[in-house]
Amino acid sequence: MVSAREWGFVGISIVAVLVLTSLPYVYAHLSAPGDWQYMGVMVNVPDHVQYFSWYWDYTQANFASNRLTPEPNAPVFFNLLWWMLGRLGGLLGVGYEPMFQALRVVSTTGFLILLYRMVAWYLPGLWQRRLAFLTVLLAGGFGWLLIVAREVFNLPQWIWGTPDYPLEISLLIFTFEPNTFYSILSTPHLVGAALYMLAFDLVVRGEFARPWRAAILAGLWTQFMGWQHGYDLFLVWGILAVYGLLKMLRDRGRGWGAIPWRLVWMGVIVVGLSFPPGLYSFLLTQLDPIWKQVLGQFGNAGVYSPYPWTVWVLMGPAFLLALAQQVRIGLFRLSGLDDRSLFLKAWFWANFALLYLPTDYQIKMLNGWQVPIGILAVQFVSEAVVPWLQRRRAGWAATWQNLAAAGLLLAIVPTNLYLVAWRFVELGRHTYPYYLQRDEVAALEWLRDNGTGDDVVLASLAVGQYVPAVSGERAVLAHWAQTVDYFAKREAVTAFYDPATPADDRQALLDKYNVRYVLVGPVETGPQPADYAPQPSADGSSVEPDWAAQGLEPVFETATVTIYRVRR
């Protein structure tokens, strides 16, 4: 039972974390120079503009097409989260940025309420519950130590890697999925996706109370979540399956009675009810040629789960304490464990195994793993560390509890302090990709007001990635996975804006993708960060090609940006 006082603590925590994580957004808006506009994204711009392109479609339709690639494709993509946001945003007449902030509030609130409900199920004491709640909310890894070591010892950017896959320091610091605070700050859809855990809560609590009702609710909830973040189906199905297996092994002395038939049938119901979004995703990426190629390019990001021997770096002190708790109660011990303890063991180890699914999106399996880690870590502190301290000075029981709690929080929070501070540093540069020049935004808005909704727009990656989200048109180059044949298109766009490129080669690109508009601005005509701009000409000049001779007609002009329409 959770008291009203405890829920008050949760409410204060929700407000506090939302206020803290809003400060970088406020700073970015208020500090933007007059000729720059903050675009509302905190990290990982390519993926966010992908979501915002779906948002644009869903304001008007029930299915989205892939607007981040120029190839014609049918509107066959459905994502329930962005459909709900798009429908509501279209009704209210607002763009993606206000709805993104609304998502932060709703996802954070829902996740933290569910989190406290779950830690209260496993931990009896008030201080234990609060400590586990704060551990899951605030925990980061040892990334801050890597930063210090890199600066002091001049380490290379990659570490513990191989020639085929160098594991960069940044992946052990800036990974969102297992970091609740960082996700609330930057990628709130991941916090919302972690609500898949409600299925666990329903199954474990309801197995011996109202099993069929619990199974139906868990299955429907898992389907609801699967339409938003299909990756999490692997987590729900896999962890429940391992839980059932461990129960059978624990009770194997009972013969056929060892098979937890009630749980088996609950699992059948959960999988049966939640199967449709998984089937849809499979068929979409196998039968539709565009989406099949999109899935095939997920490896372009080069982002995978950390090597097993480096997981402790990413997950930090809480993971080491959770592992110590598993060792303390017995890594392979099953007998004598009640169902709750057994499920916690299944969740911890099955989730770890799922990190290494042979897929390009295996890193998504980290989402939510911080919850069993936080619970197990606090169990170790309360059952092993505090009693050990109390034996040293028995009269200090409450003091040792407070000191142990403070020590754990101080150990887990530095990486998130670094991540927040780094947001201010990056946003303080006031440049791409988090900002666009106001003339570029005006150009995208002109396309929104004058395009057909199916026009193909050629621009550099820095601007092109925002074309679908702001204008609703299609981009030649926009995203490392959603843009079909991404690397070839990136080279082609770079060559298009190079003054040395023959006019016939430019025309071939325009014809190949049926380009309707060409955007020419500061990024397209001059040197900018290498990830976003074409390379300058050999002599370092920023001389523009003769666009009129190319058959392009100016239809929008500001001091720095021109939109040309291709004459056909």
Provide keyphrases for this structure.
568 residues; mainly alpha; Rossmann fold; 5-stranded mixed β-sheet; 25 helices; 7 strands; 58% helix; globular
Describe this structure as you would to a colleague.
- The structure is a single chain.
- The chain has 568 residues and is mainly alpha-helical.
- It has 2 domains: 364 residues, no CATH class; 132 residues, 3-Layer(aba) Sandwich (Rossmann fold), CATH 3.40.50.
- The strands form 2 sheets. Strands 4-3-5-7-6 form a 5-stranded mixed beta sheet.
- A hairpin with a 4-residue loop joins strand 6 and strand 7.
- The radius of gyration is 26 Å and the shape is globular.
Short note summarizing the structure:
It is built from 25 helices and seven strands.
Topology (SSEs and partners):
Layout: H1 4-31, E1 36-38, H2 45-58, H3 80-92, H4 96-122, H5 126-138, H6 143-153, H7 180-186, H8 188-193, H9 198-206, H10 211-226, H11 232-250, H12 261-287, H13 289-296, H14 311-315, H15 317-329, H16 339-354, H17 370-392, H18 397-412, H19 414-427, E2 435-437, H20 438-450, E3 456-458, H21 461-464, H22 467-471, E4 474-475, H23 486-496, H24 503-512, E5 515-520, H25 522-525, E6 552-557, E7 562-566
Parallel strand pairs: 3-4, 3-5
Antiparallel strand pairs: 1-2, 5-7, 6-7
Helix pairs in contact: 1-4, 1-7, 1-19, 2-3, 3-4, 4-5, 5-17, 5-18, 9-10, 10-12, 11-12, 11-16, 12-13, 15-17, 17-18
Percent of residues in helices comes to 55-70%
Q: Strands of the biggest beta sheet: in what spatial order?
A: 4-3-5-7-6
Rg calc:
26 Å
Strand residues, percent: under 5%
Number of helical regions: 25
- Counting DSSP E segments of at least 2 residues, the number of strands comes to 7
Q: For the report, how would you describe the main beta sheet?
A: 5 strands, mixed
Sum up the overall morphology in one term. Answer: globular
* Total domain modules: 2
* Span between termini: 71 Å
Classification by helices and strands: mainly alpha
Q: Which residues sit in consecutive blocks of at least 5 with pLDDT less than 50? A: 533-541
Chain oligomer state: single chain
Mean pLDDT: 91
